[in-house]
Amino acid sequence: MKSQNLIAGICLALLIVSEIFLFYANRQKSVAVAQLHQSEQQVADLQSQLDQATNSATANMIGEFSRLRAENQDIPRLRNQILQLQAENTKLSRQLGATSQAAQQQQQQLQEMENANQQAAADQQAAADDQQAQAQAIERIAAQQRNQCIANLRLIYAAKQVWALEKNKTDADTPTEQDLLPYIKGGVFPVCPSGGVYTIGTVGQMPACSVPGHILPPQ
């Protein structure tokens, strides 16, 4: 009987120990399951973050690739624009050079025209001065010839007066050139330097010349 009670006590003790062990085992299992769930949740969160980071990086890479592709596509267009600008600049430079050359030619032509005008004005002034000098010379010569002619008329008038006194002539008598030669110095009848023709006239008249302005003033 004691053996049976001992065995029963041992079994009971073993049962109690088993229950206690099972309790602790279940508790550890629950803790482990909770930790497992927490780890799984962390893994899921990390996976979600990784997916988001991957998607963001992929989107950024795609955007960068798109931008680079667009820029690479714009390079030929930009090169064409640069070539067009260079061609326009070359054209404008040529036009500017041609315009500058034309302006220099026009300036040279204007300078030549101005020089020609100045020369023409100088020639015209010189011609005017020459004409004026010639006119003044002609006027001086005419004045000298007029004075000489008037002096001749005075000589003829004086010869007539002497002839009339010596020959007892009246104012109505008219002498000839031969009559007056003895009373003229040198025995030569005076001649008008301008080619005029003398009219001796009567003793009472003033001798006259056919050239206008060659008039003997009243005595």
Helix content: over 70%
Q: Which residue ranges are poorly predicted, with pLDDT under 50 across at least 5 consecutive positions?
A: none
User: Could you tell me the mean pLDDT?
Assistant: 83
* Beta-strand segment tally: 2
Strand content: under 5%
Q: What's the helix count?
A: 2
Q: Largest beta sheet, briefly?
A: 2 strands, antiparallel
Distance from N terminus to C terminus (CA atoms, Å) equals 217 Å
Q: Indicate the overall shape.
A: rod-shaped
Summarize the structure.
With 219 residues, this protein is mainly α.
Task: Walk me through this protein's architecture.
There is one protein chain. This protein is mainly alpha-helical and 219 residues long. Helix content is 77%, strand content 2%. It has a domain at 148-209. A hairpin with an 8-residue loop joins strand 1 and strand 2.
List the helices and strands and how they pair.
Elements: H1 2-166, H2 177-180, E1 198-199, E2 208-209
Antiparallel strand pairs: 1-2
Q: Keyphrases for this structure?
A:
single chain, 219 residues, mainly alpha, rod-shaped
